[in-house]
Amino acid sequence: MPKSKSKSKSKSKSKKEFINFFVDIPIYGTGIRFVVSNDLKRVEKLVDKRYGPGAFNGDDAVDTRAASTFRPNKEWVGLVWLRNKPKTVREVGILAHEIFHAVNHILVERGIELTMDGEAYAYAIEYVTDKAGQKLLIS
Questions:
Q1: Could you tell me which residues come within 8 angstroms of residue 62 by beta carbon, excluding any fewer than 6 positions away?
Q2: 73 and 56 Cβ atoms separated by less than 8 Å
Q3: How far apart are CA 91 and CA 96, in angstroms?
Q4: pTM to 2 decimals?
Q5: pLDDT for res 56
Q6: For residue 22, how far is the Cα from the chain centroid?
Q7: Residue 60 CA to chain centroid, in angstroms?
Q8: What pLDDT, in 10s, does the model give residues 53-72?
Q9: Most exposed of 2, 22, 24, 69 (fewest Cβ within 10 Å)?
Q10: How would DSSP label each residue in 93-117?
Q11: Which residue, 71, 72, 69, is CA-closest to 35?
Q12: For residue 103, with 0-12 CB atoms within 10 Å meaning exposed, 13-18 middle and 19 or more buried, which class applies?
């Protein structure tokens, strides 16, 4: 019987999803950190440890499903945070939405404005979505 208790504990732990990875964008000398977790305190702790206190305010994200980008210490760091791993078309759309915001910050900081053809944006979004999708959608 004790064995089944430990199994149920490990099952409940596995339900607490926490995914953390970085997509490097070498052409722009930066990247975007992706964090998937419904545990806002854990996300805040991770982000503050990596980027400094106040980089992510979990209290501000309580009523939010996803967020992107923040500016700790006046140095831009890209972040895409999702409460859950995307499983529906709507959730994939939210991921794409947040990737756009993060890519937009990167390109604007480098003086690349969104134009009618938007090729720089399209290629950057495609690249980041491919890399993030391999971790979030395929695995």
A1: 40
A2: no
A3: 9
A4: 0.80
A5: 72
A6: 9
A7: 16
A8: 777 766 666 567 777 665 55
A9: 2
A10: HHHHHHHHHHHHHHHHHTT----SS
A11: 69
A12: buried
Token digits for 39?
A: 């545990």
Short-list 101, 124, 122, 121, CA closest to 113: 121
Mean pLDDT of 26-39: 91
Question: What tokens were used for 135?
Answer: 């971790």
Q: Which two tokens stand for residue 64?
A: 């939010």
- Among residues 80, 78, 82, the alpha carbon closest in space to that of 66 is found at 82
How far is C-alpha 119 from the chain's CA centre?
A: 23
The Cα–Cα gap between 120 and 11 comes to: 43
% of the chain surpassing 70 pLDDT: 76
Whole-number percent of the chain with pLDDT over 90: 40
Write down how long the chain is: 139
